[in-house]
Design goal:
By secondary structure, this protein is an alpha/beta fold. It folds into two domains: 186 residues, Rossmann fold; 101 residues, Helicase, Ruva Protein, domain 3 (Orthogonal Bundle). It contains 14 helices and eleven strands. Keywords: ATP-binding, Nucleotide-binding.
């Protein structure tokens, strides 16, 4: 496995997912980079933007085990993690694993479940394990939770606490498609059917990419650029709470995965510029301003490594 193979793999994945959903090539690549970096993703979008279909097509093309959890107000933590069930044949309790035991788990409309249920995801997302009956069980690897939520529907929902939002490596906000894409959607009545999706990437390839990601080179100057950007979020105007050191670590991992999927074994400053809004938009709490707009402004203000060297010249 090398960087050329990595580029070929992501190209195959994009072509296959496009059989079911179109116009989301960038988002699919983001999800794949997030998986390679060992993270979780939150997708926000209005109803009818194919959030669920996108995730199902993505999982099927990867050939990983997949489960979907429809979050509702009456959901219980045990409905996610599993529980102890009495088996009369053996006269004892046995573990029945819940839908969280899959490689890719779709938490659909995650903000519809009460906080007690949402908290059941925290251990899984952070530790890669769940506790059932006082005993811990490891989750399958690779493991990724992709949660969806509707940003405008507030009735009967429970906003995700900051501690849980911070567990998501990226937040993707889906908007309405362009006119050309919408014309193709209206014309092709087979779009949205994941039955036509074939497996084009296997588990071994995903694990090889995860291992290869660790060897992607990131220069010290780019590390400094990431840290400067994170620290700038804490001092910006209209910011109530800036990004934490975890955000710097997460961004450092994600840019490595992104570079790999671009066919490179090294990170460039543009990788940081592309990915920073997705890593930071849910970690920066503003006093009313749009966090994504604020982050893009900071990206224009914080000097890149090349610009920093120019500014330091006597």
């Amino acid at each position: 496995m090398d960087t050329v193979n990595a580029k070929q793999i992501v190209d195959k994945l994009l072509r296959e997912v496009s059989k079911s959903v179109i116009g989301y090539e960038h988002e699919v690549k983001l999800l794949f980079a997030c998986l390679i970096a060992g993270g979780h993703a939150l997708i926000e979008g209005y109803p009818g933007l194919a959030k669920t279909t996108l995730v199902k097509a993505f999982a099927k093309a990867l050939g990983l085990s997949f489960s979907r959890i429809q979050f509702t107000p009456d959901l219980l933590p045990s409905d996610i993690t599993g529980s102890l069930i009495f088996n009369p044949k053996i006269g004892d309790f046995e573990v029945r694993f819940g839908p969280i035991f899959a490689n890719i788990v779709l938490a659909d409309e995650v903000n519809r479940a009460p906080p007690k249920v949402q908290s059941a995801l925290l251990e899984a997302m952070q530790e890669g394990q769940v506790t059932i009956g006082g005993k811990s069980y490891e989750l399958p690897k690779p493991f990724m939770i992709i949660a969806t939520q509707n940003p405008i529907e507030l009735e009967g929902t429970y906003p995700l606490p900051e501690a849980q939002l911070d567990r998501f490596m990226i937040r993707i906000r889906l908007g309405y498609p362009s006119e050309d894409i919408e014309m193709k959607i209206a014309e092709n009545i087979d779009l949205g059917n994941v039955g036509s999706i074939n497996t084009v990437v296997n588990k071994e390839e995903v694990e090889a990419l995860q291992s290869l990601m660790r060897s992607v080179y990131i220069d010290q100057s780019i590390i400094r650029y990431i840290v400067n950007l994170i620290r700038a979020t804490r001092n910006a105007r209209d910011v109530k709470l800036g990004a934490s050191p975890r955000a710097a670590q997460v961004l450092s991992k994600l840019v490595r995965a992104w570079a790999l999927l671009d066919g490179r074994d090294y990170v460039i400053p543009d990788d940081v510029k592309v990915l920073a809004p997705y890593v930071l938009n849910h970690r920066v709490i503003t006093l009313g301003a749009d966090s994504t707009v604020l982050i893009r402004q900071l990206l224009q203000q914080v000097p890149t490594p090349l610009m920093e060297r120019v500014l330091r010249r006597p």
